[in-house]
Amino acid sequence: MSQDPRTDYPGYGGPGQRPPQYNPYPQPGGPQGDYNYGPQGDGSQTLEEPGSLKDDLLRLPKVYWRVLTRPGTQTLTQEATRGQWDLVWIQLLIYAIVTGVIYYINLLLSGGLASLNTQGTGTISLPSTARHVLEMAASLAIIAFIPLAFFIWQSVVLICARMFGGQGHFVQQSHAFLLFWVPLGIISGLLGLILSFLDTVPFLIIAAIFACYQLVLGFFALKAVHRLNTGRAIGAILAPSFILLFFAACALGALGALGSLAYGG
């Protein structure tokens, strides 16, 4: 009886050693054998098996640096096969916690939530205890929101990739995106903290550059994980972006309409 490589594993490693990752990429010569696996397109690229969780975590900084400084399909193809849920969740939680801490520091440096504006009574000054509670609650809300937003976004991206013929798995896609989401998100958060004392124009320029670079890296990630050609990968990464912009525009329009009704406009 044949074994399923995704569920039936031979003996492996010692304590803390995870099972070998199922390789989602068929070998050259199959239905999509023209995919460029290596520099010569001959299947020479080696797809690394994941080691222990500790080893994968220790090598993440080098992987982040390589993905950001040498972006491309080959780099992300090598790393995508190492993606497993424990590694995905740890990266995501670290990113969420660091972002929440940066947001809390930004609140403290900017004076925090010293008052609330209400329509009926105007501005209400908050006691020190209430202010600190609200600031902590806002930071914790950011930490809880980031994983939720990430998986919703990845689900939309996966659906769009499938529509364009993608064959990859959700966990590999999530891992590939986190390899640039985490470092770029932390760097942009720290830059936002520094630039919050300056004019908003430099901050907006840097935010636009980061957003464009994330789109480029997302293109490479989808091309690697889902084995898409260039045209299909472009469509798969742009489609969810347009969907996000559409819903954002609808939300802003709805908020504007509610504001006009509330203030009698």
Automatic annotation (TrEMBL):
It is found in: Membrane. It is a multi-pass membrane protein. Residues 1-51 are annotated as: Disordered. Residues 65-249 form the Yip1 domain. It comes from the Bacteria. The keyword Transmembrane helix applies. This is Yip1 domain-containing protein. The lineage of its organism: Bacteria, Bacillati, Chloroflexota, Ktedonobacteria, Ktedonobacterales.
